[in-house]
Design a protein that fits this description.
Blueprint lengths: L5 E6 L1 E3 L5 E2 L2 E6 L2 E6 L1 H8 L7 E3 L3 E5 L1 E6 L15 H11 L4 H17 L2 E8 L2 H9 L3 E8 L6 H14 L6 E5 L7 H13 L9 E6 L3 H9 L3 H8 L14 H9 L4 E5 L5 H10 L2 E4 L1 H6 L13 H6 L3 E4 L18 H11 L3 H8 L1 H8 L22 E5 L8 H7 L4 E5 L6
Parallel strand pairs: 1-6, 2-7, 8-9, 9-10, 10-11, 11-12, 12-13, 13-14, 14-15
Antiparallel strand pairs: 1-4, 2-3, 4-5, 7-16, 16-17
Helix pairs in contact: 3-4, 5-6, 9-10, 13-14
The structure holds zinc ion.
């Protein structure tokens, strides 16, 4: 790093979730990495004579690390936001109709979604990908994170799904941080989950340390019913799409208890967990699982009904030792006209306004917790250390969000109250 030109970015405020908090503040960057961050005088003192190379005054904004969207479906970027009709299985079938029909169409949507994500202030993503090619496109876009290769197979279709997954996975070279995602307990049998966990542990190509694992879990009451009783709307949906057979049965268990033995094998990233019991929090914490809460999507589907005592247990999970991060889910579930629908600021603002969550906790969930969720037991490698903070030596992916510098209110709180968009300052060469 010594010898490369230093640029000092000054802003009305600077903040990360690892203890950096200054107003006004500065971040010095050289060779694409953070050299120093904090009070302007201290940062300039630290870079000394090298600071002559460049000064950028960003003005009235809060400068932060780019955020982590731990659960997204970039392949649906071309569909756009749509109203929810009130029945999840009907919605799923509609999205299956509207989604990309070819691998090329999916890859085009992923490329477009990746650029949008970067423009919306996201530096790292947990994307659900339909092919190894889509994962490569995401990585090439400059967006960090993991692309989880999705698979489906239940009942008599499980064996062929295992074969297909093994073949598709082996096509990857491990570059671009690929992971695996059995879709959900109503579309994947336990054998497919086990096989995915085994493949993930073995890794592929350059990923000898293994790859990450993700799934949708306990997302709806219909899923809880399906796993327990083997009937309801998901059984009807499987019949309608020709995927039902007599080997598919209720297990008498909640999805978390049903999957617990496989969750214990590796550190999973679990999308949603909208409907879990208090007893499951210890199970998830014991497995080292991370939960991605997508509050905007969750509310879109009607999973937040405080009058009926139905609310997400994310705060209890955090207290119970579960790493909880934030995600958007797909753009389909975002409000029409949302500011930056593929950004994570919308999720932070939603929880701040709905539940009064502390700004500090929201920033942790949107940065370091997201990195921990994507990294699992180290699948992101050494680059994950300190990622999404302003620590010295960390890759500098920086975003700025407008604030009123004359307002004495906490700059991070201002960002959660206002609707200013995030903008990328430095750190990602966007090659669409
Ligand atoms: Zn999802």
């Amino acid at each position: 790093m010594r010898g490369s030109a230093v640029v000092v970015y000054r802003a009305a405020a600077v903040r990360d979730a690892a203890g950096c908090c200054a107003r006004p503040g500065a971040v010095a960057v050289a060779g694409g990495r953070v050299v120093a961050a904090g009070e302007v005088g201290a940062v300039c003192g630290e870079v000394g004579e090298r600071s002559g190379a460049g000064q950028v005054d960003l003005g009235e904004c809060l400068l932060m690390p780019a955020l982590v969207n731990a659960h997204a479906h970039l392949g649906l970027s071309a569909v756009g936001p749509r109203a929810y009709g009130g029945a999840f299985t009907g919605w799923l079938r509609e999205v299956m109709e509207l989604g990309p029909r070819t691998r090329e169409a999916e890859r085009a949507a992923v490329r477009r979604g990746a650029v949008m994500s970067i423009e919306h202030g996201v530096g790292w993503i947990g994307d659900i990908a339909g092919s190894v090619g889509a994962a490569a496109d995401r990585a090439e876009s400059g967006l960090g994170g993991v692309s989880y290769l999705e698979c489906f197979g239940i009942g008599l279709h499980e064996a062929e799904a295992v074969e297909r997954l093994t073949r598709d996975f082996s096509e990857g070279d491990g570059e671009g941080s690929i992971g695996l995602q059995p879709h959900a307990p109503y579309s994947c049998g336990l054998g497919l989950y086990r096989e995915a966990a085994g493949l993930a542990a073995r890794g592929v190509g350059a990923c000898a340390r293994g790859v990450g694992l993700c799934t949708h879990l306990a997302e709806t009451t219909e899923e809880v019913r399906f796993v327990r009783d083997g009937d309801g709307p998901f059984a009807e949906m499987l019949r309608a799409i020709g995927r039902w057979d007599q080997t598919i049965r209720g297990t008498g268990q909640h999805p978390v208890d049903w999957l617990a033995p496989v969750l214990a094998e590796r550190r999973w990233l679990l999308a949603h967990c909208n409907y879990i019991e208090g007893s499951h929090i210890g199970v998830l914490a014991g497995c080292g699982a991370s939960v991605v809460y997508c509050p905007v999507a969750s509310d879109y589907f009607g999973h937040h009904r405080p009058d009926e005592g139905v609310r997400h247990r994310y705060r209890e999970m955090i207290e119970g030792g579960v790493n909880v991060c934030l995600g958007t889910d797909s753009v389909v579930c975002q409000p029409v006209g949302a500011v930056q629908p593929l950004g994570v600021l919308g999720a932070m603002r939603h929880l701040y306004r709905r539940d009064g969550v502390s700004p500090e906790l929201l920033l942790r969930m949107a940065t370091v917790n997201g990195i921990a969720g994507l990294a699992g037991e180290g699948v992101l490698g050494p680059e994950a250390a300190g990622a999404a903070t302003l620590g010295a030596g960390v890759p500098a992916r920086l975003i700025a969000v407008g604030i009123d510098a004359g307002d004495s209110a906490d700059p991070l709180e201002q960002v959660l109250i206002n609707n200013e968009p995030a903008r990328l300052v430095t750190g990602v060469d966007c090659h669409a």
